[in-house]
Amino acid sequence: MSLTGTWQLSIATPVGDRKFELDLVQHGPDQISGQSRYEQEEAQELTNPQLEGNTLSWTSKITRPIKVIAKMELTFDGDSVTGMARAGVFPAKITGRRAS
Question: What domains sit in the chain, N to C, each tagged with a CATH number?
Answer without folding.
Answer: 5-98 (2.40.128.20)
